[in-house]
Write a structure and sequence with these properties.
Blueprint lengths: L12 E6 L6 H15 L4 E5 L7 H12 L7 H25 L3 E5 L2 H11 L4 H12 L6 E6 L2 H10 L13 H17 L4 E5 L4 H20 L1
Parallel strand pairs: 1-3, 1-4, 2-3, 4-5
The chain binds thymidine-5'-diphosphate.
The site of thymidine-5'-diphosphate (TYD) has 17 residues, from helix 1 and helix 4.
Length: about 220
């Protein structure tokens, strides 16, 4: 799988967060967002996929994918919807902020499609990558943190957290979550560039501190 980075000439820093369900990404991102905002007021935004901050089109697509429990969506439709929502999200939100020299924190991005649709749903990473090339037009993250947590631990966290919405994908059987876990592990080995694996079974504070260290290191490079 070849990764092109033709849309890399923006002035910002694009950081994505990945991992199996229940890895604690959202809480980690919240904490990092507040931390970075103190250091760089007005220069940090956060968003998520599927959907996106202030993006009604992408959010509507999110609803189709995640909340229509009675739809039988076939994998390729699901993959196309994720990619479509991503294209809109990039155009309306991510690129304008990056072009403005800001730090964009994104909860899930293209790697989720490579793993969930490509590996777990069996479409194949190459096919999903090709589909996403249309949406990305060369925009790959500068840094991707993969928060790893075993399916048994992740699923326990999901069921414990009543504030979190429980969506269609969360209902999937354990075998899908196991495929996701193995998929991330294999991806990190095969395509390590720009990807940092974080042990998300460690205490929350340790996870946040570790990620802060990596971001600060990157920012030093980025600020030069
Ligand atoms: P969400 O409620 O945002 O939860 P999470 O905290 O796990 O990110 O649910 C998003 C779900 O959508 C999650 O199970 C992963 C899945 N997903 C894909 O299958 N492909 C994708 O490209 C993306 C962005 C998400």
């Amino acid at each position: 799988m070849k990764i092109e980075e033709s849309r890399k000439n923006h002035k910002g820093l694009f950081i994505t967060f990945e991992g199996p369900d229940g890895s604690g990404k959202s809480s980690v991102i919240n904490q990092l967002y507040r931390y970075l905002l103190k250091k760089y007021p007005n220069k940090v935004v956060r968003t998520r996929e599927p959907g996106g901050t202030n993006n009604p089109i992408a959010e509507d697509i999110r609803n189709i994918i995640l909340n229509k429990l009675d739809y039988k969506i076939i994998p390729i439709t699901e993959a196309m919807l994720f990619a479509a929502s991503r294209a809109q999200h990039i155009h309306d939100f991510i690129m304008p902020h990056l072009n403005n020299g800001e730090i964009v924190l994104c909860d899930r991005f293209v790697h989720s499609s490579l793993i969930y649709q490509g590996v777990a749903r069996g479409l194949g990473q190459e096919r999903v990558k090709k589909l996403n090339d249309q949406a990305l037009e060369g925009l790959w993250p500068d840094l991707t943190f993969v928060l790893m947590v075993r399916p048994s631990v992740g699923l326990k966290r999901i069921t414990k957290n009543n504030q979190r919405e429980f969506n269609r994908l969360d209902r999937e059987e354990l075998s899908l979550h196991q495929k996701v876990y193995r998929g991330y592990k294999a991806m990190v080995k095969k395509y390590p560039k720009g990807i940092i694996v974080i042990d998300a079974e460690k205490p929350f504070d340790v996870v946040v501190k570790t990620i802060k260290r990596y971001i600060n290191k990157k920012l030093k490079v980025y600020e030069k």
